[in-house]
Write a structure and sequence with these properties.
Length: 217
């Protein structure tokens, strides 16, 4: 899933990489939720509790949005990559997908009952999470929910290729206490916090951290 940072050159690099990766990404990970029971459970909570539309940021090829829609959510997908948006629209023609930057979402304040950011902030460097979370908080209605997931740790991963396609992206793992601190600094109230080990054979070998938070009423 794409993510964005504040620097225009970094944003352009992320967009270009995901434009190249879009179809291979969809082929490799478009069904990944079938292998992720905890992710499905948390998305189910969001679909059940959201009071209004749900925004799936860094939506990639649309698999999370499709799952939310299957649970009855009125969902909109947002991604920086035009090719990811193209693939998402092909896979889910009845859903709405918008091209845009999650650090300045192209929606009015309070437009959504929930925002889902499933690994959408993986390219944000350590210490930089609060700013994009403030931007996401803006589009949440009072009482709205944010579901955030990230890789937990303190490494920076810079693979030279994915699925045989050259990349020049950096994936930033984040200590879980710093993730929680960033959520609080963004003015969000944590409701649930979970860390799990990777599913054998199905994922990169990092722990996953999840925070379900709320914009105060």
């Amino acid at each position: 899933m794409e993510a964005s940072c504040d620097s225009p050159p970094v944003t352009a690099t992320i967009r270009q990489n995901y434009d190249r990766l879009a179809r291979a990404y969809a082929g490799a990970l478009g069904d990944e939720l079938e292998r992720k029971p905890l992710d499905r459970w948390l998305l189910g909570l969001v679909a059940e509790r959201a009071r209004g539309r749900v925004l799936d940021v860094g939506c990639g090829p649309g698999h999370v949005a499709l799952h939310l829609a299957s649970l009855g959510a009125d969902v909109v997908g947002l991604d920086l990559s035009s090719e990811m948006i193209r693939v998402a629209r092909e896979r889910a023609p009845r859903l709405t997908f918008v091209e845009g930057d999650l650090t300045s979402p192209p929606f009015e304040e309070g437009s959504f009952g929930a925002v889902v950011a499933m690994y959408a902030l993986v390219h944000v460097p350590r210490g930089g999470l609060a700013a994009p979370l403030v931007a996401l908080r803006r589009v949440l209605a009072p009482g709205g929910l944010l579901l955030l997931s990230l890789h937990v740790g303190d490494e920076v991963l810079e693979p030279s290729e994915l699925w045989g396609i050259p990349t020049d992206l950096a994936w930033h793992l984040q200590p879980f206490d710093e993730i929680l601190a960033a959520v609080g600094a963004a003015g969000l109230e944590p409701l649930e916090r979970l860390v799990r080990w990777p599913y054998d054979g199905a994922e990169h070998g990092s722990r996953r951290g999840y925070v379900l938070a709320r914009r105060p009423e």
